[in-house]
Amino acid sequence: MTTSLSEFDHPDSVWNRAVDIHAHTDPFCCRTEWQLSFHECFAPTRQLLISSTDDSLIAFARHAETTNGSLIEPVEASWLFGCPLLGPDAVPMLQQLLAEHPNTPVILSGIDLEGELIRVLAATFAGSYDLVHVTSEIACRAELRDGFDGYMSRRSTKHRRSVRNSERRASERGVTFERHSARTSDEAAAVYARIIAVEERSWKGIGKCGMNKPPSLQFYNAMLRRMAAQASSRVIFARHDGNDIGFIFGGLCDREPEGSIYRGQQFSFDNEWRSSSIGGLLQLEQLRWLCEEGVARYDMGPAMAYKHHWTETQLRFDAIALRPR
Predict the structure, then answer these.
(1) What is each CA distance from 126 to 139, 277, 301, 322, in whole angstroms?
(2) Per the domain annotation, does 57 fall within a domain?
(3) So what's the pLDDT on residue 18?
(4) Is residue 125 domain-shared with residue 157, that is, in the same domain?
(5) What is the mean pLDDT of each run of 10 residues along the chain (325 residues)?
(6) Selection from 85, 33, 34, 76 nearest residue 56 by Cα
(7) Structural domain tally of the chain?
(8) 277 and 151 in a common domain
(9) What does each C-alpha distance from 260 to 25, 115, 296 come to in angstroms?
(10) What is residue 70's predicted lDDT score, i.e. its pLDDT?
(11) 111 and 192: one domain?
């Protein structure tokens, strides 16, 4: 078990190399940019339980003692998006972890109940642990391999017309878009300051439920700082008369030769522009940028009504518990 995060807290660590983007529903959230930022900002006092080999890693933390005793959970234990079992040796490494912590239940997130991993877990722990369902989530995604025109051709006629009309109106009002991909911590800090300034004027900021409030404020800041180490963030600002009126951002998860996957994180806009479709236009501009770069897929996170226009595939993933018998 590791006692230091420095060996993992960089883009080319074994942690990130072990993330197979085709084996996980939400591969970006398996990476250190998401997982270690969560630990740092939401639950820094937990004991981390991380083991690795040359090509595999398991990433857990010991939950504070509960009324039912100890619990082992994924490092990111709130949304449960990522998977703590990475690489071909992850299940045997989990066996070893549980041998060192007998009679301790463990939460496993990011599990496909129709996939190979759940079958291996059931066979490995049969007789000693029960597999108990904890929660489910539906993730949305869109394919971008055929470029922007191909992507738009799969949208409804109504949606395409609405987007064209919104673009025309915004152009007539002088709205422009500005792209950023921070490469240093200072650049990331400057971009993030602009993001938060917009968030303060958004309906979420005004309602005190946005990313401008701790610990989300620190979480996304830490994530952008980590993404700067490989320039993997993709941030776009909507601007008018020299002022930022909206933003959208997310990050790339790149595993050659499969291609890059973009995971959206947040977007928001000045509440005074709420009737101008700024959010939709930011999505459109992000899609243009991603297609120009040859990104293969857009992962938009948990299913929500507004995402139906922008995505075409929904996949379920689950969290389960291994409960000692």
Answers:
(1) 29, 53, 32, 10
(2) yes
(3) 96
(4) no
(5) 82 96 94 98 96 97 78 97 97 97 95 96 96 97 96 95 96 98 98 98 95 97 98 98 98 83 97 96 98 96 94 96 96
(6) 85
(7) 2
(8) yes
(9) 14, 22, 6
(10) 86
(11) no
Q: Which residues have C-beta within 8 Å of that of residue 33, sequence separation ≥ 6? A: 223, 226, 227, 232, 251
- Any idea which residue has 């877990």 for tokens? 121
Are 123 and 155 contained in the same domain?
A: no
Does residue 263 sit in the same domain as residue 221?
yes
Residue 40 and residue 131 in one domain? yes
Tell me what pLDDT residue 67 has: 67
Q: Which of 268, 190, 112 is nearest to 121 (CA)?
A: 112
Helices (H), 32-175: 32-42, 90-100, 116-124, 147-153, 157-172
Partners of 266 in the β-ladder: 249
Residue 86 structure tokens: 């990475």
CB-based contact 212:196 (threshold 8 Å): yes
Cβ neighbors of 58 (< 8 A, separation 6 or more) are: 49, 50, 51, 52, 84, 85, 86, 90, 93, 94, 97
Q: Which of 281, 296, 172 is nearest to 236 (CA)?
A: 281
Residue 257's pLDDT is 67
- 171 contacts: CB under 8 Å, gap ≥ 6: none
Query: 242: buried, middle or exposed (CB in 10 Å: 19+, 13-18, 0-12)?
Result: exposed
Residues 204 and 243 in one domain: yes
In a domain, 156, yes or no: yes
**Which domain covers residue 81, as residue numbers?**
14-138+316-324
Q: Output phi, psi for 300, to 5 deg.
A: -105, 5
Number of Cβ within a 10 Å radius of residue 219: 19
Distance (Å) of CA 151 to CA 77, 125, 284, 297: 34, 43, 11, 10
What is the per-residue pLDDT for 199? 98
Calculate Rg over the CA atoms of the chain: 21
What pLDDT was estimated at residue 22?
Answer: 86
Cβ distance 249 to 235 under 8 Å? yes
Contacts of 103 (CB under 8 A, 6+ apart): 324
